[in-house]
Specification:
Elements: H1 8-20, H2 23-29, H3 34-48, E1 53-56, E2 59-62, H4 64-84, E3 98-103, H5 105-110, H6 112-122, E4 127-131, H7 138-142, E5 148-151, E6 161-168, E7 170-174, H8 186-191, E8 193-197, H9 218-225, E9 231-236, H10 239-245, E10 251-256, H11 257-260, E11 270-272, E12 281-287, H12 295-312
Parallel strand pairs: 3-4, 3-5, 8-9, 8-10
Antiparallel strand pairs: 1-2, 5-12, 6-12, 7-10, 7-11
Helix pairs in contact: 1-2, 1-3, 1-4, 2-3
Length: 318
């Protein structure tokens, strides 16, 4: 094939078609008309001498040739995007734009307030649109519609870039009137009633199966290794809600220490170290390869990473 025949726009079309698996949606993504995208697909089929996308009962399905081309096309477009990025440095004090960040309420309450404080000083024109894990899919991130993710992840697409922000231990939050405090042992911890709280990854969640220990997370996994099981009476995905429930006299909430510390000045709860060893959790930040070289995105990622390191260096107090 003569490279002079290759129109770079056709590679952009192919990338969109392979992401969307739908001609109309691909056209909408690129602000094109459907006939223009259909014509582009026709030209791509001629160029590669392959149908590339075939209509099936499940919609438009890529051929073997298309699946081979998919990572190559994305790599080429990423390199082109990097090459044409403006060489001038991002000027945060002059910037006026919105950053969309998917963050769990754990990250939103423990990390982002300090980040926001720095943004008010360094980049007062920036706005953060903080989205919940249920608002976002990995496909949204891959397309660059979301700037970054801050959460704990059981799995993540290999193409995503990611960095470690910090590890966190666990702390129990409960009412000072909870009778379990009279003898804070593992046996009494297990006899008490518990609130489960967690939201890893992203996407719309489904109901929790109390018997599926493997999916219940750190606390129940640690107990399972001891051959033990706690009595969970409330399941929630929101740390703030869980900590409010901890004010009731008969409930214990075991959650990440940095979240628990937000209640240090609340006289209606007390904080205690768990009566068992629990492996620490890891908070990560991830982003699309499409934004890897974007100057504004790089600046904000560095600010968040530096802030996390500063906070991680501060001693935890119970």
């Amino acid at each position: 094939m003569n490279v002079n025949r290759v129109d770079l726009n056709l590679l952009v079309y192919l990338d969109a078609l392979l992401r969307e698996r739908n001609v109309t949606q691909a056209a909408n993504t690129l602000n094109l008309s459907q006939p223009a995208m259909s014509n582009g697909l026709r030209r791509l089929r001629e160029l590669f001498d392959d149908p590339l996308l075939v209509r099936t009962s499940e919609g438009m399905t890529p051929t073997e040739r298309a699946l081979e081309l998919e990572p190559v096309v994305r790599e080429v477009l990423n390199k082109v995007e990097h090459a044409v990025q403006p060489r001038s440095a991002f000027e945060p004090h002059k910037a006026d734009r919105v950053f969309r960040i998917m963050a769990s309420d754990y990250a939103e309450s423990t990390l982002l307030p300090t980040v926001l404080g720095k943004l008010r000083e360094l980049a007062p024109g920036l706005t953060l649109d903080i989205m919940t894990p249920s608002d976002v899919s990995f496909l949204d991130v891959e397309r660059g519609k979301v700037d970054m993710l801050i959460n704990r992840f059981d799995s993540m697409p290999q193409s995503f870039h990611q960095i470690h922000l910090w590890n966190d231990t666990f702390t129990c939050v409960l009412s000072p009137n909870n009778p379990v405090l009279k003898d804070w042992t593992l046996d009494n911890y297990l006899l008490a009633k518990h609130v489960w709280v967690s939201k890893t990854g992203m996407g719309v969640g489904v109901g929790v199966d109390p018997g599926d220990v493997q999916r219940l997370g750190w606390v129940d996994g640690a107990l399972d290794k001891l051959g033990k099981k706690r009595q969970i009476r409330v399941f929630t995905r929101h740390y703030q809600a869980a900590m409010t429930l901890a004010e009731q006299n008969d409930l214990i909430v075991t959650l990440p220490t940095r979240a628990a510390q937000l209640k240090l000045d609340n006289p209606r709860v007390v904080l205690r170290e768990p009566p068992l060893e629990i492996a620490p959790l890891e908070l990560k930040m991830a982003w699309s390869p499409l934004l890897q070289h974007n100057p504004a995105n790089k600046w904000l990622r560095k600010l968040i990473a530096d802030t996390a390191r500063e906070l991680d260096g501060q001693e935890a107090t119970l």
